[in-house]
Amino acid sequence: MKTINGFDITFDFSKLIKIADLIYFDGPLLSHYMSEKGENYLFHWVDSDDVYNRWIVLRTDIISIQQYLEKKINLRSLTVEANDGFVYSVDIDNDLNYTNIKAVPVAALPEDYIPTEESFYTFKVEDDIDLSALSKKYSSGILEIHISGNDVRYGSMPFNKFALIMPKLEEIRKSMSAKYSNNIKKAQQNCNNMVKQDIAREIALDTNYEYLTSMAGSVRIILKPVNQQTSFTSTYSDDFARDFTGLFISGYSKESIQNYSETYDKQTIKKYSDFMSYLSKERLSLGIKWCNVGTNTRINHEIDIKDAQRILTNLSDFEYDTKEEIKVTGRFYSMNIKTGSYSFESSEGDDFKSLGFLDETRRQMAFSISFNKTYQVIIERKESEQVGRSPSIKDVIISFVEYNE
Questions:
Q1: DSSP string for 115-167
Q2: What are the chain's domains?
Q3: If we measure between CA atoms, which residue out of 11, 8, 32, 34 comes closest to residue 22?
Q4: Which of 38, 269, 285, 347 measures 20 to 30 Å from 336, CA to CA?
Q5: pLDDT tens digit string along 186-196?
Q6: Bridge partners of 18?
Q7: pLDDT score for 216
Q8: Residue pLDDT, tens place only, 357-388
Q9: 287/266 Cα distance (integer angstroms)
């Protein structure tokens, strides 16, 4: 490799987080990294020998990277106009050991290490973040929300779009968290109160997220559970993340939507439908990932722009069916003996009313009903509802007896 004239420095490159490989051919040739402080670096491969690969590292900014990816400037400009007036050189072996680290004035670089005037970007960005590095660093599961699509650039998007996405996602998370917690509590009914309290506290921490950072590479939001406890066995956070991420892919199948509506509730499905409508309207794609190195759990789901309408079609055809029995005291104020249809209102001081039909057995007894008497009735109520439409309610009286105070 060529000799580089520069100043030996100490720089811990291993702490940088890879955001994307911008150029890749049998291995990365140009990669985007970011520091904990949000500083942007480009690693440009320039040379190698039997032991090392040599990289020129440029400290730059997200606007310059965007301009490069949009072919407004070339890689040569990024190099010779580096933010600091100099670049770094570093040699990296196959075990990722960083050696021979130097700060090098741009003018001192070998000409072969400086890109040509034709070095405009002509590749497709493959911008996968290494979530495992973040998971190791924080000893926690990491949730990534990846937004791309219409008007989304590398590392930025219109605020009016972004400002609506996160609240909609939080509404879904909150709805699912409450139901998830209730489901776990039901399964732990035989535990003593102290154990129940510990479980409830752990679930609350595992199913609530805190913001870590935003990343470039389209737009990425990095979150982690509030829980600070390290675990090497499957946790509530992994289980909930599996359900949370899985909800977004459930729309591809009506059977999956049905399963989620039974495990969670119709409010969750409604919020999911509202979120998908927003993605479709704004022509946005969503990627959602979960990585927990400690428990070896990795989940990855993506919803492309073209899939949103298919999901919305499945959701619009989906009906919730819920049944309940209602016991109420009151009076009949209309009755059709032939058809069995009735009108009934409560006398218990509320505004409850029921319009429906008597079941077959009660229909045979309809002639005995008197409008000036009070009855205690049991109504079987079936409620059907399609997403985005008003519910349809069918009431059937399955029992009535005269009520004497």
A1: --TT----S--B----HHHHHHHHTS-EEEEEEEETT-BTTB--HHHHHHHHH
A2: 7-113 (no CATH), 131-317 (no CATH), 321-402 (2.40.50.140)
A3: 32
A4: 347
A5: 777 777 777 77
A6: 33
A7: 66
A8: 999 999 999 999 999 999 999 999 988 766 66
A9: 23
Residue 344 tokens, joined = 């009934």
Report if pTM > 0.70: no
For residue 389, what pLDDT is reported? 65
Give the CA-trace dihedral at 339, 345, 348, 350, to 10 degrees.
140
| Extended strands (E) in 250-388 | 284-292, 297-303, 319-335, 341-346, 353-358, 375-386
The secondary structure element, H or E, covering residue 6 is none
Query: In the chain, pLDDT over 70 holds for what percent of residues?
Result: 94
The arrangement of strands across the sheet holding 142-149 comes to: 209-215, 219-225, 142-149, 284-292, 297-303
pLDDT at 400 over 80: yes
Could you count the other beta carbons within 10 Å of the beta carbon of residue 233?
Answer: 7
Q: Is the pLDDT of residue 178 over 80?
A: yes
